[in-house]
Amino acid sequence: MNTAGVARMGYDTAIKIVPLQCSGQANPQLIMDALKDGADAVGVIGCCIGACHFVNGNMLSMHRIKLMKQLFKELGYSDQQINHYTARAAEGETAVGDFEDIMARLKRAEHDGTTLPEGW
Amino acid sequence: MTEEEIENQHETGQSEQSSEPKKPRIGVFICHCGHNIADTVAVEKVTEFAKTLPNVEHAEHYMFMCSKPGIELIKKAIKEKNLDRTVVASCSKTQHGPTFAHAIEEEGLNRHMHQQVNIREWCSWPHIKDKAGATEKAEQMLEAGVNRSRKLEPVETRQIATTPAALVIGAGIAGLRAASDLAALGVKTYVVEKEPTIGGHMTQLNKTFPTQECPQCSISPLTNGVANDKNITLLTMAQVKAVEGSFGNFKVEVEITPRYVKDNCTSCGDCSAHCPVEVPSEWDSGMSMRKAIYKPFPQAIPATYVRDKKACIECHACENVCPAHAVDFSQKRETRKVEVGTIILAVGYDEYDPTEISAYHYHQDGYEDIITQLELERMLVAGSITNSALLRPSDGKVPRRVTMIQCVGSRNEQVGNKYCTGVCCMFAIKNAQIVKDNYPDTDVAICYIDIRTPGLNNEEFYKKAQEKGIKFIRGRPGEIQRDPITGQLLVIVEDTLSQTPLKIKSDLVVLSAAMVPPRSIGTLGSALHVLRDKTGFVKEFHIKMNPVKSSKDGIFLAGAIQGPKDIPQSVAQAGAAASLAAAPLVRGYIEKEMLVPQIDYDLCVNCGLCISACSPAAIYRNEAENKIMINEISCKACGLCGPACPTGAIQLKNFRDDEISDEIAALAVAPREGGHVHD
């Protein structure tokens, strides 16, 4: 994300960034807090597979998000509001691409009418 | 942590949750960063907003917070307003987080009481076109930062004793230089080399540019020096298999393949003379043969012979004939555990194999006269298979026309690699001059895309080659053809400067093959847990400011493993690596910030899930008390333990769920709806 900023790559101001030590630190609790507090979609971005600074934190996060998606689906909601991405520190365009993907998936979910209801 | 300390922590945790005895006093500082932030984000508006937030006792904005006057403003505010924590909204945490942390430390505050909010890379720069949106977002980011700041706790920095030894993996020019420099600093150094000899690719070269010196002569003081240094333990035929521990205290498992020859070998060579088995010599790039029991080259260090178990037919002729009784077929593979404080990775490169470029027919039957530059070096070197004569491999005749092709495996979008190796122009020009000097009647042509000879003396070297009559043809050959009747090689290339298609008749074609990462780096890189980049070379910590540190603390890089480079660059980097690797050993300790998780034993159900989630295995169960405890020295502050815990008992200090939740609360609300969330 720093690389994207340095290169002045533009993206929507709707994207807000919360830095964590590792994507594996993204607790389902925090993801749900974000959605409850008003976020329309949540993306967890971690290092590429095999490149996790802490060995397998990114794998834990991927698996966690996968389970959460399943849960959302079973409850009848879209599974597109929570996503996991991988990016390399030096690739600003990957991060920006991920942001655009979050927005695109959200739009799809909104179009399908399966997003989480307001004030749930 | 002692039991007492844990109990105290637990108590403090409890009291903080039930009643806040001391209210936080936050100082907010917003940076213009010249035009970078202020042109997009309305910093005055953000400052006014900051003043409305609870616990913010001071808020101001300034042109350059990281400058001396900027730092003075922070210090002044801390003193005058009795602040106990700061929030600076400016650039990234990596860039100036430490600057401000250090500044508040000088005022007596713990450096972890500083919170950095990045309204530049994460706000003003990506949202240049949306000033209103950027300002709104900056306000939200600032609120998030202030929320986070409220619950920050001081973190102590502890000194941890280092193991006073270093490991150098790879004994090529970079590894040897690094080992030598480490030894000179008094550091006990282990050198692990997978080949039977030390010196690496440099010993295979005929001459080095731009002075045409003999590399064996240049490297000899170093190879001998390292072999005889009392501070250095040299392990050849050895590979690193596994690494445990962390910066300052690594435990390395080294696997040593047996030589089957004892150290009392006098290097007389009788064994080799009597050995009936001949196989191509890898060290000689396959240009000559060696025996199953052999010494790779006459000046090899160690001088002890080595038996190639795979090629050996076990006739025992060597064993019978050895006057020193040094041959020992019973030797076994050995595993050695070595304890070191820092590691230098210097495993070098491999020459690109042009076989995949089918149009160049490398190593195909009928095309024996197409060789690589390394094979050419092996032919021209003193004592070579041809006795230094330049001869065609097919018929042993002196070639009258030599054509060199540049960028083979480099600068290619289709095959090989996209990068420019950067060394091939110089070594092709070097070899072209050697051919021309010794065979003035031989035509030498170099087909190039660009000639890259930067640095002092190199442009002059290129000029000299042109003056010697070496032809430079600007074009990348599309293929090498072979006349079916005469067998003559034809290099098909367009001279793009004169826009003429050419068919260059060649007696010998030399391919300037790229430098690629060594085959072994896959498994070794994983064992060391260092990041590699797309090309396979090991990634440096920072492309500009730290090309010597790897992605892993305590492991440093030297030489071509960090990217193609020439000998002087490798030597320079090796010196830098030795210096960085020696520092914590000479000092005797590393400083570790005790950013560790805390366990609320009232919530802990002793399930041990955190132990499985912990990547550096820093959490363990104390059997005696049946209690989950933390090894603070191994802990990497990754926070993976938190989400694994079903009750939320284990929380990483300053990254607790409630703290991050506070940060999220300010960011997740939709802007322009008026609802800013206050704690």
Characterise this structure.
The complex is a heterodimer of chains A (120) and B (679). Chain A has one domain. Chain A has four helices and two strands. Chain A has helices at 2-6, 28-37, 57-74, 92-112, and strands spanning 42-46, 82-86. In chain B, the strands form twelve sheets. A five-stranded parallel β-sheet of chain B has the order 8-7-6-16-29. In chain B, strands 18-25-19-20-21 form a five-stranded parallel β-sheet. Chain B has a four-stranded parallel β-sheet with strand order 2-1-3-4, sandwiched between helices. The model of chain B is unreliable at 4-18 and 673-679 (pLDDT under 50). The longest helix of chain B has 21 residues, at 567-587. Chain B contains 19 helices and 34 strands. The interface between A and B is large, with 42 and 52 residues.
- The whole-angstrom Rg of chain B is 32 Å
**Main β sheet profile of chain A:** 2 strands, parallel
How would you spell out the order of helices and strands of chain A? Answer: HHEHEH
* Mean of residue pLDDT values of chain B: 92
The CATH first-level class of the largest domain in chain B comes to Alpha Beta
- Beta-strand share of residues of chain B: 15-25%
How many helices of chain B? The count is 19
Which structural class do you get from the secondary structure elements of chain B? alpha/beta
Superfamily (CATH H level) name of the largest domain in chain B: FAD/NAD(P)-binding domain
**Mind telling me which CATH architecture of the largest domain in chain B this is?**
3-Layer(bba) Sandwich
What would you call the shape of chain A?
A: globular
Assembly state: heterodimer
**Strand arrangement, major sheet of chain A:** 1-2
Taking the alpha carbons of the first and last residues of chain B, their distance comes to 32 Å
**Domain module tally of chain A:** 1
Q: Write down the domain tally of chain B.
A: 4
Most extensive contact: A-B, 42 and 52 residues
Helical content band of chain A:
40-55%
Structural class by sheet pairing and helices of chain A: mainly alpha
